[in-house]
Amino acid sequence: MTSAIVTKIVSLRAELPPQVRLIAVTKTRSVAEVRAAYAAGLRDFAESRIQEALPKQAALVDLADICWHFIGHLQSNKAKKAIAQFHWLHTGDRLELLERLNRLAGESTHRPQVCLQVKVRPDPDKYGWSPAELMTALPALTTYTQIDLAGLMTILPLGLSAAETLAAFQDLHQLRATLRQELAQPDALPELSMGMSGDYPLAIQAGATMVRLGQAIFGPRSPRTGG
User: Fold this and answer.
1) According to the model, what pLDDT value does residue 145 have?
2) The CATH number of domain 2-218, selected from 3.40.50.720, 3.20.20.70, 3.40.190.10, 3.20.20.10
């Protein structure tokens, strides 16, 4: 197992442009698999369920420079725990959540990096802002000074063709340009968190700065065993 993970990581890092951050998605993966990826040089790891992440993080507490990313839907009542346990929150998908994160961050010593989750295509199975909703919310978002709005994130609907996928990723890139113009801040929202194991080359082509890969690193996912 370890050698296969190392081989995949070496291959991926040779493939990815140097400006693209490789995030290993470790939901349902074992502590041993995370350690293997860490030993191969990865430092960024993502979980989508806080209750699954906590025991894993506790078992890996000796890895002092590990960086944890939260990529699942974040319920408001778990915002405090998320701030304490994760460096990055990729799923800032509504004003209520961002307001709560801002308040809780102001009461703690943690300052999370937050990506705003956008639905660049309609999808009833995904959370996130539509581009129009995000533009409307922008004045309120600029008042949240205790969190860092670090970029945009998207998860695309299933079933898109390669051309449709590339166009959707390009639309997120363009949305960031529009937001930067509206904010009069050419360097705002530097990160574009987009691309997973099945579509990350297209995301990189469209300007991704972060890709979130699970199966491309660890192989087929094992069935969830609870938690």
Assistant:
1) 96
2) 3.20.20.10
